[in-house]
Amino acid sequence: MTEAILLVGGQGTRLRPVTVNTPKPMVPAAGVPFLAHQIARAAAAGVTHIVMATCYLAEVFEPYFGDGSDFGITLEYVVEDEPLGTGGAIRNAAQRLTGGPDSPVLVFNGDILTGLDIAGLVESHRAADADVSLHLVRVEDPRAFGLVPTDADGRVLAFTEKPQTPEEIITDQINAGCYVFRRSVIDSIPAGRPVSVERETFPGLLASGAKLHGVTEDTYWLDLGKPESFVQASADLVRGVVSSPAVPGPRGEALVLPGAQVAEGAKLTGGTVVGAGARIEPGAVVQGSIVLDGAILGADTVVNASLIGAGASVGSRTVVTGAVIGDGAVVGADNELRAGVRVWCEAELPDAAVRFSSDR
């Protein structure tokens, strides 16, 4: 049996207004809450018991996932009254683990989409007899991440959180947000207070002589912290760029959920998802986007790499590119919303209120 802790307590502030009503891991990607993909992939890798560490909007998780039986696992929930950070959340959730002190415990973040070989990571941890094993990936620009250099045998040498100077960039390997802990190491994390696993736990373990093992795997990896990344992740799941047993339909250019209406002449491409009860009117062109349940796209709209919130409506001939429309928002006809624009939940934008000159 492999146990896991799934960290889903963050507020998802970088994804607002998408996360005003819904915690980030519960925002639909490829037709189901993003969390469903992580749970399904963990279950497929042999994980049998997951403890979900919740905080923000904690009440929404259990009604959807229940006891985990739909995924063939046992699922439990632990709620933080106050945010405890990554290390504190792991320590708090450990109260529900059942394994012994040397048992491996998989820990993963609720906002990372990856093609990681989870079973392989656990096996590598056992083979290395490590105290903690970390999934590492190589990125072109590592400045926004925690750097983790290793020696030729994979032993972790140091941790540098979000380097500030060129001299600090000593590797392109970054902490990919998935770990395997020896259970006794989790029990050594201070309880009842906020703890950063990246800034406190890992450096402290390294200083004490613990064996930290890095596993660098060349695989799909995406941090879903920003709207554009979340939309891309959904599109990649729909198109099969990265696999998930939880995608509710065949891989392809679009996923249209039951109850959605797509008019003849509308064009859906690039891994677009159309949610239940949503309506796409004639002449609309939607590429690589998420249209959530009950949303409406008017005739001849153009929507590209964007997220349209539940119950939102976009008027005829409006162009939406790289933008986020919040739940229940109303965007009038003949508007042009460009990359980075966010329309708040329930906001109303009149017809032709936002336009850009053609020479820009």
Automatic annotation (TrEMBL):
Alphabetized InterPro entries for the sequence: GMPPB_C, Mannose-1P_guanyltransferase, NTP_transferase_dom, Nucleotide-diphossugar_trans, Trimer_LpxA-like_sf
Gene3D superfamilies per record: Hexapeptide repeat proteins, Spore Coat Polysaccharide Biosynthesis Protein SpsA, Chain A
Residue ranges of domain Nucleotidyl transferase in the record: 4-237
Residue ranges constituting the Mannose-1-phosphate guanyltransferase C-terminal domain according to the UniProt record: 252-344
Pfam family, one: GMPPB_C
Family from the record: Belongs to the transferase hexapeptide repeat family.
Protein name: NDP-sugar synthase
Native source organism of the sequence: Streptomyces polychromogenes
